[in-house]
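Query protein
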Amino acid sequence: MNSWNKVLLASVIGLLVAGCDDASKVDANLDKAKDSAEQITDAAQQKADQLTDSAKAKAEEIKKQAAVQADQLKDKASAIQSDAEKHAHALTDDAKAKAAAIKTDASQQSQALVEQAKTIKNDAISGANNLTEQAKAKTEQIKNSIEKKTEDGQNDTTPSTEAPANTQNSAAQ
């Protein structure tokens, strides 16, 4: 994400240093900045979706492993049950407790990964939106500066045109 920030910042600085001569260049650069911001937003959305999918897949895998482990522990408890009923009950209770703990842990890890993915997604989208707003503001500043310079340039040419007319009027008097 930092590289995109640097690219956008370099683009804005490049525009400021080079100076644009007409508003169409500014509009084109604004469109480029908007496209870049949209690409960043899309990339962030895709990355967040990938992280969410990955978290869900990991959670499913952990749940399956927990179920397999629970089944294995239950099988061990059944085999021991033929030797001693008391000993078998203790192993079954232990197996159930471990299975519940593994399932709880898997669920907590899954939820944490999903929340982390959502946070990353929201942060990425927020950052992309901020960059878009900054790019718009910088572009607007550049556009206003160009318009002001254009107006100043027109104002500079107007007095010089009027000066000879005044000189002629003075000479006529």
